[in-house]
Specification:
Length: 316
């Protein structure tokens, strides 16, 4: 009998049931030539956040929360493990300790490398704050062509760069002003009252951005909004990118967002939006941003992000 029979490997689940597979077991470290159903890469950057943020801890928290779920979908009667679904994990990009610009460059280079590795048909970038999206979209454009974006967010994130530089409030303005994104190729869903300045809403309209507020979400079925958005983009772009700022959710469900607020979306509505969008062949990349595990309550926000990973995996 082994002396260490009661020792579990570090990082493994506390309890192992012979009939149960935890979702975290679907994670497979990337190796040259290895293929999976989806791929993830962590971009743990939160230094550019204009509010206090520990979003750099989010990629690990989201991975850890996969241990809170099994691989069996009781409503569909499907099992991700039995269906041999896998998540290729590229790991986390190492951020520069002091330079935001260098960190953004590393995110750009690493995202580009991950896409070129062709490890899966769908890639998810785990932020980090929303500033990472400028870098990831630039990389997607250079590898996949013209990009259209469906952004789920309470905020426009079209702030000027003169007042604070490349913060988490500026990613889409930077993409537009640097010529990587046309305004008419950006669709924003979930924009909330008293969360944005009039000047930035006006900028969105001037640039041809399509804006759906939370009133629009409440009055129309999410499936219809997504289908309309996809139809609007499909003939104009080569690839469609989903950008999921978790503060689009109501603060009741996402206490771990630095910019929480009332009047937001229900998690089921967001999940329906993602699953509907995933049915389109041009949707191939997504980011999940703005979770601060140090502010979260019992990982509530990170658990929703983990479920979004599983919902994506289910649809691939």
């Amino acid at each position: 009998m082994s002396t260490f029979q009661h020792i579990k490997p570090a990082g493994k689940a506390q309890f192992k049931d012979r009939y149960t597979t935890k979702a975290a077991e679907l994670l497979t470290p990337w190796e040259e030539g290895k293929k999976g159903d989806i791929a993830i890469i962590g971009a743990p950057l939160s230094k550019p956040s204009i509010s206090h943020s520990g979003a750099s801890f989010a990629p690990d928290a989201i991975r850890r929360c996969l241990n809170s779920f099994t691989t069996y979908n009781i409503e569909r009667g499907t099992d991700l493990h039995e269906d041999k679904k896998t998540i290729i994990d590229f790991g986390d990009i190492i951020m520069h300790p002091t330079s935001i610009e260098e960190s953004h460059q590393r995110i750009y280079e690493s995202t580009k490398a991950a896409i070129k590795a062709n490890a899966s048909p769908f890639t998810i970038i785990l932020g980090g704050d929303h500033s990472i999206t400028t870098s990831t979209v630039k990389a997607i454009k250079e590898t996949k062509g013209t990009v259209g974006i469906i952004q789920f967010d309470a905020h426009h994130d079209l702030r000027n760069t003169e007042d604070g530089g490349p913060t988490n409030g500026t990613p889409f303005r930077r993409l537009i002003e640097e010529g990587h994104l046309q305004g008419e190729h950006l669709i924003q869903i979930g924009i909330r009252n008293y969360a944005n300045a009039k000047a930035y809403h006006n900028y969105a309209i001037e640039q041809g951005v399509t804006v759906y507020t939370m009133k629009d979400v409440r009055q129309h079925r999410m499936m219809k909004l997504i289908q309309k958005s996809l139809s609007q983009l499909e003939s104009q772009v080569d690839t469609i990118y989903l950008s999921v700022d978790m503060d689009v959710l109501d603060q009741t469900y996402a206490p771990g967002c630095p910019a929480i607020g009332p009047g937001g979306m229900h998690p089921d509505t967001l999940t329906e939006a993602i699953q509907t969008a995933l049915q389109h062949p041009k949707v191939s990349t997504m980011d999940i941003v703005e979770i601060d595990p140090t502010l979260d309550v019992r990982d509530m926000t990170s658990r929703i992000a983990s479920l979004l990973l599983l919902a994506t995996l289910e649809n691939e």
